[in-house]
Amino acid sequence: MLHLLGTSLSLEQLLVLKLSPLMLAIVCVAGPVLLSYLGLLLTRKFVTAEYLRQHHDVTGPFFGTLGTVYGVFLAFIVATTWQFYATTGTNVVQEARCLSELYSNSIAFPSPFKEEIQQLLRAYRDAVVTREWKSLAIGEADPEASKLLRQIEHAYAAHKVADTSEDVFFHESVRSLNQMQDLRSSRIDDSCTGLVPFLWCVLLAGGALTIGFSFLFGAQNFNAQAAMTMLLTAIIAITLYTIVNLDFPFSGLVAISDEPFARVDLK
């Protein structure tokens, strides 16, 4: 995975951020489909169908092998990207639950520590929902949310437990706080990670070779071959479009929502 520091964004993330879902679909799907048709048209202009048909006995097996290898590789990348996206979504839900548990356990603490913790937790939740979720789109943490989380940590570190019953809730709260901090760190890391450029090069090169290899068939009906070539290109392009949208889980068409935090009742 590639870590993006500061505002240094990868081309992939810039496409997701700067283009609307429709424009991104045009760039990722419609563009390649049109190029595949033009490529086939250009190939037929310089190489006759009769000449291409002479090599079908070799072209067919090679194309089948190439398509299988590329298809397996593409399916593996899609499955891995989806797993990464799903794990990030699960972590967000668990992080919100930790926040809720911290607030619930704070009821057992004496004043004024109880009021201080509850106020900090409410402020932290509001900062995550209103500020940090926007900064996650560019792979950054919100400084205000980070500051509030440090204040919560310092408040727990400075608190002196009065009795055994309070001690149980205090230790459970510290456990939830540590887990919430770990999940937040994972959330921020996930917001700025994507497929490494090398894998994108392999994906794009493999797709171009697979589509280009289909030009070497000389079907008697050009329109039928053009339709099949464009369909093959569309399938590959839609798959790559899916990877682009899932790769950065807090950006784009299927960005993970802040709803788990917004639903937390801190009253």
Low-confidence stretches: 1-7
Please report the number of helical segments: 10
Question: Looking across the biggest beta sheet, what order are the strands in?
Answer: 1-2
Count of discrete domains:
1
Helical content, roughly?
over 70%
| Largest sheet, strands/sense/barrel | 2 strands, antiparallel
- First-residue to last-residue Cα separation: 40 Å
Record field, number of beta strands: 2
Overall geometry comes to elongated
Question: What structural category do the secondary elements indicate?
Answer: mainly alpha
Question: What radius of gyration results from the CA coordinates?
Answer: 26 Å
Mean pLDDT figure = 91
Beta-strand percent range: under 5%
Element-by-element helix/strand order? EHHHHHHHEHHH
Outline the secondary-structure elements:
Layout: E1 2-3, H1 11-18, H2 21-46, H3 49-53, H4 56-105, H5 113-136, H6 143-158, H7 164-191, E2 193-194, H8 197-214, H9 222-247, H10 259-262
Antiparallel strand pairs: 1-2
Write structural notes for this entry.
Helices cover 77% and strands 1% of the residues. It has 267 residues and is mostly helical. It has one domain. A two-stranded antiparallel ribbon has the order 1-2. The relative contact order is 0.20.
Short summary:
This protein is mostly helical and 267 residues long.
